[in-house]
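FORM 7B: Structural annotation worksheet

SECTION A. Query
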Amino acid sequence: MPIFQNNAKQKYTYTDYLTWPEGERWEIIDGVPYMQAAPSWQHQAISGDIFSQFYEYLKDKPCRVFAAPFDLCISEENESDEEISNLISQPDIVVVCDESKLRKTGYFGVPSLIVEISSPSTARKDKILKFNKFEMAGVEEYWIVEPENKLVNVFLLQDNKRYGRPDIYSDEDEIKVNTFPDLILDLKTVFANL
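SECTION B. Predicted structure
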């Protein structure tokens, strides 16, 4: 297990990340490492259903969907892959449409759509830290799923390059996916049996 000491190293990078044990899930935000807890069965059920709906839709299309563990690396200007410390994340679901940015352990660039399934232990990261990073990077569509409330908050990047107020959907709704206007995601199956 990596040992992190205060002030011993200011920023951790993708190079550091690659040396950490494979059985552990870590993220780096602004050079700070965060260990991820094992997801609950409810989290996994929601993730699996959303993933399968995207997967079925994207068959034979140029975009692809990936589920965690899958690295998303978003660099700051002039950072090489090895130097990335801005954001190394493992979103629950990532949709990418530029296969040239798939390399090493994941995707190095800005994806088209990200879904995070939030929990009390990840809410701060999902709703503040990652939200701000995804917004600044230009992720067009960001979903935050709240299993306890059976809600999905969909944030869309506006002309001013900021996320507007979210569209909020409940377990009785369908979501018309902005990135793929002919895709309707059914939330009845996503939240079924929870």
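SECTION C. Observations
Residues 40-70+89-190 form a domain with the tt1808, chain A fold (CATH 3.90.1570.10). The two ends are 34 Å apart (CA to CA).

SECTION D. Sign-off
Analyst initials: ____
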